[in-house]
């Protein structure tokens, strides 16, 4: 049983009483899902297996050599190598733990419990195969049936945004997302067009809280939530994207069930961003998707799209084939509630933000 399988086996249990044959090492710490923990890229770490994590108000909870386990932030079963603090925020580095780091005793012949997936499907990015991108790009402007391939060039401003989960027959479901593009660059795009791009400007997120950590850290933590663009169609609120200007050093993290986000700015911070602002948050990649429907709002086109799965004989196959995208077919959204946050404390580079030892 490898570490990943063990994680699925284990994290569904709130306490070890559910599996009497399991004895954990004393340094193992379970993170309750009512708390919020964020996973971040860790540039400059010793190897690419190392992940950085952030706990708001987290001084002292996690220490080196602890093993932290949680269903949040994409799944955690990490042995901690470094910990530090940025003001009241605990920051720590870890690698996926070995079985011996977690268990003093475990009977793996016992049947494991089913694991409830905590990550919201709307928060998961579907990245097309690079060969598919090349094939579709070569067909730019060519018509196949009712489909036109539209290549959006690198200079185009394109952001991704969370869409809907649609319920199909036989308990199948399908996740869409939105491409948000200024109208002046996208009014020529129609329903059924296939949009292809080699890059995009990040997922849109809405700012919920801003915390400034004073000197010597000089860091600003911008708490966000993944924007659900399908909710904007009937909203009377003015929509505007506050773009983060180039040159600012910041790291984008994802926590909880994939909806909470955290942007960490060091030294220079965006002045125009405030609570309620919409900003590009977590990074996004290329796309190849067919337009299902669209709406306009405040100078932007919002294209609800379905990922392209293949192109054969000039025919494009998309993931939503056979699934209605009417409103009544949308699954009701559940919400992730962050309850009390806990106390937790790395002398490395966290993305582009450097943390100092407290």
List the helices and strands and how they pair.
Elements: H1 3-10, E1 23-24, E2 28-30, E3 38-40, E4 50-55, E5 67-70, E6 76-86, E7 89-96, H2 99-102, E8 103-105, H3 130-138, E9 143-144, E10 147-151, E11 159-167, E12 173-182, E13 194-197, E14 204-213, E15 219-226, E16 249-255, E17 260-266, E18 278-280, E19 287-297, E20 300-312, E21 315-318, E22 349-350, E23 353-354
Parallel strand pairs: 2-5, 10-13
Antiparallel strand pairs: 1-8, 3-4, 3-16, 4-7, 5-6, 6-7, 9-10, 11-12, 12-20, 13-19, 14-15, 14-18, 15-17, 16-17, 19-20, 20-21, 22-23
**What's the tally of helices?**
3
Query: What series of H and E elements makes up the topology?
Result: HEEEEEEEHEHEEEEEEEEEEEEEEE
Report the radius of gyration as a whole number of Å.
22 Å
Q: Which strand order does the major sheet show?
A: 2-5-6-7-4-3-16-17-15-14-18
Low-pLDDT segments = 1-19, 110-116, 328-358
| Largest sheet report | 11 strands, mixed
* Molecular shape: globular
- Summarize model confidence as the mean pLDDT: 76
Quickly give the structural class. mainly beta
The helix fraction, in percent, is under 10%
> How many β-strands, per DSSP?
23
Tally of structural domains: 2
Strand content range: 35-45%
Distance between the termini: 38 Å
């Amino acid at each position: 049983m490898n570490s990943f399988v063990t994680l699925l086996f284990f994290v569904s249990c709130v306490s070890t009483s559910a599996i009497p044959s399991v004895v954990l090492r004393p340094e193992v710490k379970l993170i309750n899902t009512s708390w919020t923990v964020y996973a971040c890229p860790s540039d400059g770490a010793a190897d690419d297996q190392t992940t950085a994590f952030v706990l708001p108000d987290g001084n002292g909870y996690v220490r080196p050599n602890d093993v932290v386990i949680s269903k949040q932030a994409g799944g955690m079963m990490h042995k901690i190598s470094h910990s530090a603090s940025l003001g009241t925020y605990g920051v720590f580095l870890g690698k996926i733990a070995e079985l011996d780091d977690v268990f003093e005793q475990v009977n793996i012949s016992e049947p494991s419990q089913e694991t409830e997936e905590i990550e919201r499907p709307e928060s998961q990015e579907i990245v097309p195969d690079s060969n598919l991108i090349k094939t579709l790009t070569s067909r730019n402007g060519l018509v196949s049936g009712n489909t036109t391939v539209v290549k959006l060039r690198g200079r185009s401003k394109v952001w991704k945004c969370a869409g809907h989960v649609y319920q199909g027959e036989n308990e199948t479901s399908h996740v869409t997302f939105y491409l948000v593009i200024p109208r002046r660059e996208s009014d020529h795009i129609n329903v059924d067009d296939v949009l292809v791009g080699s890059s995009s400007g990040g997922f849109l997120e809405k700012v919920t809280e801003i915390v400034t950590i004073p000197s010597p850290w000089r860091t600003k933590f911008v708490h966000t939530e993944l924007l659900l663009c399908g909710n904007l169609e009937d909203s009377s609120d003015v929509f505007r994207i506050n773009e983060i200007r180039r040159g600012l050093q910041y790291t984008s993290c994802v926590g909880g069930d994939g909806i909470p986000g955290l942007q960490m700015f060091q030294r220079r911070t965006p002045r125009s961003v405030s609570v309620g602002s919409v900003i590009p948050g977590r990074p996004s990649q290329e796309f190849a998707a067919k337009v299902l429907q669209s709406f306009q709002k405040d100078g932007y086109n919002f294209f609800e799209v379905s990922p392209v799965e293949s192109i054969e004989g000039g025919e494009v196959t998309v993931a939503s084939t056979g699934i209605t995208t009417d409103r009544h077919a949308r699954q009701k959204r559940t919400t992730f509630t962050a309850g009390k946050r806990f106390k937790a404390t790395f002398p490395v580079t966290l993305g582009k933000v450097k943390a100092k030892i407290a």
